[in-house]
Structures are given as C-alpha cells and as structure tokens.
Design a protein that fits this description.
- The structure is a homodimer of 229-residue chains.
- Chain A has 8 helices and 11 strands.
- In chain A, α4 packs across α5.
- Chain A is α/β, with parallel strands linked by helices and 229 residues long.
- The first copy, chain A, folds into 2 domains: 88 residues, Rossmann fold, CATH 3.40.50; 104 residues, HAD superfamily/HAD-like (Rossmann fold).
- The relative contact order of chain A is 0.11.
- Chains A and B meet through α4, β7 and α5 of A and α4, β7 and α5 of B.
- Chains A, B: Pfam families: Hydrolase_6, Hydrolase_like.
- Chains A, B: Its main location: cytoplasm.
- Chains A, B: This is Phospholysine phosphohistidine inorganic pyrophosphate phosphatase.
- Chains A, B: Its cofactor is Mg(2+).
C-alpha cells in the first residue's frame, strides 16, 4: 500500500461493508496498521445516498444501527423507497413487516439493497446476509431490487469517477471472484485475484469469471502493476 | 354443504392453513356453523408428515407454535431437512439463522415449505407470508424448496387419494384463482371460482388460469354440480 501511495498512483478502497460507517471501518483498518482515510473509501451507503439525492427519494431504512449516521443528511420523512442493508439484529419480524408494508403500499415500489450477499461468517457461526432478506421483499412485493455495492457496475463507476480515471486506466485487486473480479471486469477494468481471504482454489475454474492475473498477496499485485507502467 | 353431504357425494376441505392444527381449524369452522370434521380436511402439515415418513426425513421445524402438535409423531432428532411454515412471530433473526445453518450444513439440503404465499392480511395490517422466508433460505443456500400445499399438484393428488376418486371425477370450488383453480386444473380436475373472499374482478382476465365456471357463492356451485349429475 505504501509503495502505491509513494508512486503517486491513484487509489480507492472499495468495500461492501454495511454494518458500520466509513469512519468506523477506517478506524478498524488504521488500528491494523493501514494508511487509509475516509475519503479514500467507496462504500454502498454513500453510493446509495447519491442515488437517493439524484432521484429525490426519501428512504425508509432497514439497516444496521451503526450505519444510520451515513444517512444523516438524507430526508427520511414520508418515505417513497426502502433501503435495505445487512441489518443483523434489526432483521426482526416486526421490522421486515414494516418495510414490506411501506413497499407494497407504494404506487411504484423502489427497493435499494446495499449488496446481494447470501451469507457471511462471524465468530458465533454463519449468518444470513442482506441478499436473503432482499429476496424475501422482492418476492413479496413482486419487485426487483436495485443493488448498490460490488459487483454492481454503478458501484465501480462511482469509484472511477471519484478518482477521475477511465476503466482502462484502472486495475481492481480483490479476493472475491464474483464481487471484486467479475464486477470490475464488467465495468471494463482489468482485475487481479489475490489468493488470500475469501479465495478458494475452485475459483480458478469459475464458470464465467476469469481474472487477468492471480497473485499470492497484495505485494505481488503491486509488483505486477509496477512492471506494466 | 349440507346438500352435498346429503347427496352422498364425497367431500374434502383443502386448506393452506399452517398457523393452527387441523383440530383448531375445524373448531373455528364448527363455531361458524359448518358441519366439518378433522378427517375431512387436507392441510399442508399432514401432507408434509407423509413425505417426511416416506423419505426418512427428520425435520428441523421453523413453524408456528400452534402447528407443532401436527408433527408430534415425527422423529426430529439430528435433523436432515428443514420444514418451514408461516411461523409468524417465530420468524426471528436467530431462528432464521439457525434454520439456514442447518440447511447449508447438509450434504444435500432439503427445504420443505408449507406453502408459497407472498403475504396476507390481519387485523393489524399486512404480514409477510411463508413464501418470502422460503425465498430467503432458497437464495442463501442455493436450493429449491419443495412446496407442500395448494397449488402443488401433489397436494391435490393427496386429497383425491383420500377420497378414492380420479381427477376427472372431482371438482374444486375455491376463491383463489392460482392456488385453488389453477392448482386443481393442473392436476386434471375441473375447477369453479367463487366470487367471494379473495376473488377480485381482475381474476376474470387472468393471463393463464381460466376456471371451468364462475359462481357468485357456494350454493350456486352446488347447483351446477347437481345439474351435471
């Protein structure tokens, strides 16, 4: 990371984190020793806020308590859309029914989902992710959610716009074959898969996503980028 | 109802009720003045029990507390499938994660759903029905649920078998264009839609279900049946 920053190359951190504000996400990474600041992060909630403002949408939020501050400047009175994130403990029967009633009561229901993840692992076991609850609301209301976050094309386009570069000038480095590599490639970027974190050996035979390169760690990815300059 | 019973015609009540045992369902209808007994009722939970026994399946139940007695005789130790019904208040974040973890941990996940309803109305407003939660688990585990209850073909076949008649000898009377009329017709039965209850005038232009007849009430349906004898 320090080598990239020293080189003057532009850099964005693209995360699907929706259980915390960017502030808290950045603090966590700083605590792990990373040189990172809030304005270098592209995350689903701010991307959703941009959409809400552009389209004059007032959201009902079904999100994690810790994410609510990201929507501080958004008008939420008399909602005309629902925004769903990984709400975790807030995914109660009552909250799901409330979000559903608001959606089904809209002339044209708008459901914005901060991701389409199926599940994730925590120390106390696997948990259903936002995608599962998104599917429940989609089915009940016969609507299609608009997904913000990786692998949505719009999400990568936001990151590129923030850096002021074209897809051809950018390279994505990530461990998730579909969300990181596939999403970036669909946007016209090149993408490298890192064999750490979420990487599984079966990813190398993925039916429809083929990374432009594999690396064993982030340092190797930086080597490749410098070789191409 | 009394005219049908007096005529000697065979009769079954087919319900998708999964918030109560057949005993309680029957008591409610008896209280409204209907001549009905438990052994005249075809309902999703007993149909599911038959499947569980036939296939040696031991269910983890995510159902309404009041439905649990229907599964009294089923072995539920060391579950190898999940049965989901309209669990209402039991659709908690913890219970959904538990059902999900069991399913995803199975070598071949089996999800049996006691219906595919999207939502229903109660005195305090609309509620998400079992179908929405079924979709959430289907998506998270990448499985397809086996649906017991109307409009599943198997459900109507059970009712016919219980009466000992062929589809051609039977007629379905119901107010739900897809679940009652469509389901029965797919099973080779004729079906009449009653213009009461769930009936909506737009049903008469349904894109793919066309009842064999319309009637304004149950008495008219009985008239038609007697005319055809």
């Amino acid at each position: 990371l320090n080598r990239i920053k020293a080189s003057g190359l532009k850099l964005r951190f693209c995360t699907n984190e929706t259980q915390a504000t960017r502030e808290n996400f950045v603090k966590k990474l700083q605590g792990l020793g990373f040189d990172i600041s809030v304005d270098e992060v592209t995350a689903p909630a701010p991307a959703a806020c941009r959409i809400l403002k552009e389209r004059g949408l007032r959201p009902h939020l079904l999100v994690h308590d810790d994410l609510v501050p990201e929507f501080a400047e958004i008008d939420k009175a008399n909602p005309n859309c629902v925004v769903i994130g990984d709400a975790a403990e807030n995914f109660t029967y009552a909250n799901l029914n409330e979000a559903f009633r608001l959606l089904i009561g809209m002339e044209k229901p708008v459901l914005i989902s901060l991701g389409r993840g199926r599940y994730y692992k925590e120390t106390d076991g696997l948990k259903l992710d936002v995608g599962a609850y998104m599917k429940a609301l989609e089915y009940a209301c016969d609507v299609q959610a608009e997904v913000v976050g990786k692998p949505a094309k719009m999400f990568f386009e936001s990151a590129l716009a923030e850096m002021g570069v074209t897809p051809q000038e950018a390279i994505m480095i990530g461990d998730d074959i579909v969300n990181d590599v596939g999403g970036a490639q669909q946007c016209g970027m090149r993408a490298v898969q890192v064999r750490t974190g979420k990487f599984r050996s079966c990813d190398e035979n993925h039916p429809y996503v083929k990374p432009d390169a594999y690396v064993n760690n982030l340092a190797e990815a930086v080597d490749i980028i410098f070789q191409q300059l």
